[in-house]
Design a protein that fits this description.
Layout (H helix, E strand, L loop, with lengths): L1 E6 L16 H11 L5 E5 H6 L3 E3 L2 H10 L9 E6 L5 E5 L2 E6 L4 E5 L3 H8 L4 H18 L13 E4 L2 H9 L7 E3 L18 E6 L8 H14 L3 E6 L13 E4 L4 H8 L5 E4 L9 H8 L4 E4 L4 H4 L6 E4 L4 H13 L1 H19 L1 H17 L1
Parallel strand pairs: 1-2, 1-5, 4-6, 5-7, 7-8, 8-9, 10-11, 10-13, 11-12, 13-14, 14-15
Antiparallel strand pairs: 3-4
Amino acid sequence: MIRVLLVSPMDPEIPGDLRFLMGGENTYTQTLLANSPKGVEYVHHTKALLDGSLEYLPIHRILANLIKLRILPLSCGTQAILLKRHFDLVHVHAYSVKILGKETPLVLSDSSSNYLFLRDYLNWPWWRIKLGCMMRKFIFDKFGVIDADTNLGKAVKLIVFSKFAAKIHKDLGISAKKIEVVYPGLPSQKNKARKNKNIINILFIGIWFERKGGLLLLEAFKILSKKFPNLRLTIIGPIPKNIEISGLPIFQKDFVPRAELLNTFFPNADILVLVPSKAEGYGFVVEEAASFGIPAVVSKVYALPEIVDDGKTGFVVSPGSVEDLVEELEMLIKNQKLRQKFGEAALSKFEKEFSVERSNQRLLKVYQEALTT
């Protein structure tokens, strides 16, 4: 049995400010904990803190304050820990990390890159990003902090979620030999998807409504709902207060627990839409839709074209084009057989590339390599 300390973000069961939810990072953490690779026992760092297996170093609070004061660029944060008990391996996801104590092999993972978060999510200008990353590298070097973007240090491997993310990290100077693409795995939900219903339901899930293409989808839906009276839109996530949806066949809820998403909202969806105009770290909801056999319409952004095969498992549209979105959605709305064909192809691709079993095979191989390096 390989005992792995998992240092990874996890959302609270009852969220406070929805803007600070970790979304896909939380999904990744919860999936690993619930579906560990064969022969692997995970201990999440929050549990290890409680049972005394590790403790925070004094520098932990200092580094957190440097981010809070914007001396360091915004990120998921840094975990500065002292290992007090034995682990065979430490897997750190999304965080930067400083580890003292027992010498233990270290693997990092990242969905995309904090550099992209600063550039495409926060819209920082290039000079500010460059200055922030220089400051991060200087401070991290001084304190011995390991980071996926600036300093891999003694980390044996960097796991990324996509070929797109691998290219970004190579461009940032990380050796290709240290990078492994391991698509995050999810359990199959194929027996939960509904079929052949009179109502056609489009599903949108996202806390950042505008960034994830919610406004574009809403514009397209207004056009299509006039033509197709049996069309419905479900929005899970808050929408801006100035957006008016009353009078439209739309169900909206700011937040629902993950179990409700899987047991209620995905099974009642016919099409998933995720059409960000600029940025999307990975696109877990698209992978989740595929696990149900639900086709998706996505924009040609980041790793989304890796998850959706255009014209086979869904459609990939031009970012920001309402015309393209209306055209592709209309094809799926009008043609139930096409939805079924794409959905079956999406499920088939999911089982080959994105199932938790396939992902765990790849992940276990990385762990074994790390333990023998």
